[in-house]
Design brief:
The protein has about 150 residues and is an alpha+beta fold. It contains five helices and six strands.
């Protein structure tokens, strides 16, 4: 990766060491999270701090170089969630059981769909099973995501 270590550390700290899309904690990972270019380099984005987001490998791979997605409810093409310009809690909420991220807006639903944040395309959703274990251990959902 061509990003200097100091910039990588700044991105990690700003994100509170969690994926800025699915809120997967780096503390639960055996490997550091990666850097996502919000405006992909292949589409002219650069390595500036305001174009970088911390992402788990899964979200980074699924986002790839997409900047838009389709809201499954309205079939509208919309921009994906941008953690530099938008607040996570404005677009997403955890399901009551804490196993799924629910999109509250067109952007939230399109991002859930594009990034498959709940692993719903598999018969046995690994992500939801993993989240179930984290809940049992008191590690999930992230406390700052809870809304009362």
């Amino acid at each position: 990766m061509s990003i200097p270590k100091s910039l990588y550390e700044a991105v990690r700290q700003r994100a509170q060491f969690q994926c800025e899309y699915c809120h997967y904690s780096e503390l639960l990972s055996s490997a550091p999270l990666s850097i996502d270019h919000i405006q992909p380099k292949s589409l002219g984005g650069g390595d500036e701090l305001n174009n970088l987001a911390l992402a788990c490998r899964r979200c980074n791979e699924r986002r790839y170089n997409f900047t838009t997605g389709i809201d499954p409810e309205t079939e509208t093409k919309v921009a994906l969630f941008n953690p530099r310009q938008q607040q996570w809690s404005d677009h997403f909420i955890w399901s009551t059981d804490g196993l799924r991220i629910l999109g509250k807006t067109l952007t939230g639903r399109a991002t859930c769909n594009r990034l498959d944040l709940n692993d719903e395309r598999r018969e046995q959703p690994f992500i939801q099973n993993t989240r179930r274990q984290w809940i049992a251990g008191g590690l999930h959902p992230p406390k700052h995501d809870l809304q009362f």
